[in-house]
Amino acid sequence: MNIPLKKYFAAPVLALAILTTVSTAPNSHADYSTHPEVAEFVDLMVDKHQFKREEIINWLKVAEYKESIVKAMSRPAEKVKPWYEYRKHFISERRIKGGIKFWQDNKETLERAKRELGVDPAIIVSIIGVETNYGSNTGSYKVVDALATLAFDYYTYTDKRAKRKRFFTAELENLFLLAREQKQNPVELKGSYAGAMGLGQFMPSSYRNYAVDFDDDQFADIWTNPTDAIGSVANYFHEHGWKQGEAVAMRANISTDPAEDTLNKLHRPKATLAELNSQGYKIIEPLAAETKALPMRFKAKYGNEYWLGLHNFYVISRYNPRTKYAMAVYQLSELIRERHCAQTSDC
């Protein structure tokens, strides 16, 4: 699942590599309003955002602890599965065909997103394909359950839960703000086990920051409206610096064993191709020597693959900060584009 998250994970969509995890059952599985850590949150919503106290309490009364959410967060596919298995989950004939149909069904909207926001239609289609299989699986958890569980009853040994608690508490705060702004009932909204919503799986903060009303009907409907979902995904990429027409990643050969601490580190590309070449990387594509890239290694079925991720690869990773995720989105987009172009005269 990929959730666009802005602050802690710097992306809108969520598949977390959680290290050793343990959870503790809440006092009540059906009433978060009495949880010992909730009083401070209620005060924040009342004092900072002027909600009525009884309104927040009533919403939290129906929020339920979900052990399945904690278990799912503890088994992220990005960490557990090697690349060749992870890839098969997202890159399949069914998903390629679904992407072609989604492109054809939403051709005008995708072209408008490209024209106005400068984002490649194939990437937009691929994101929605990877996230929700083009809207067929947007999540069945109540978002308030997911966020309350993760804000108040999710513990890790590695970070003493402080960072994740802050992140998910902030997302619960944003859920209630979103509900007020969009006149939605927060206890009815559904999404992933991490609280991501809609065709593009936006966290509440990402919705508030990047979702757009792309069809001008006064509501940014990322849940059921492909037009708004496409515009919102495109806006997310636009705001994170997507460069239209530039390459995303390229294969590379290598003549030496690279240092482990140089591989698969997600940050803005810093090393130039000239520098990487001096480290043993043999660049296949004819790009300028000053082009910056991230060196990556992926475990294939019969050996390792080496790739260099460019600026746009890094932008994809802002949607979900995992190299496997970004590579899956890129490779699926290329397969969809190739088939789409072969069937139409648009390319």
Structure description:
The chain is α+β, with helices and mostly antiparallel strands. The protein has a domain at 21-76 and 138-239: Helicase, Ruva Protein, domain 3 (Orthogonal Bundle), CATH 1.10.8. It is 47% helix and 10% strand. It has 15 helices and 9 strands. The strands form 3 sheets. The chain has a 5-stranded antiparallel sheet. Strands 1-3 form a two-stranded antiparallel ribbon. It has a two-stranded antiparallel sheet with strand order 2-4. α8 (121-132) crosses α12 (226-239) and α8 packs across α15 (323-343). The protein is globular. The chain starts with 20 loop residues before the first strand and ends with a helix. The model is unreliable at 1-11 and 14-28 (pLDDT under 50).
What is this structure's SSE topology?
Elements: E1 21-22, H1 38-49, H2 53-61, H3 67-73, H4 77-80, H5 83-90, H6 93-105, H7 107-117, H8 121-132, E2 141-142, H9 143-152, E3 155-156, H10 162-182, E4 190-191, H11 204-210, H12 226-239, E5 249-254, E6 271-272, H13 273-278, E7 281-283, E8 292-300, E9 303-309, H14 311-319, H15 323-343
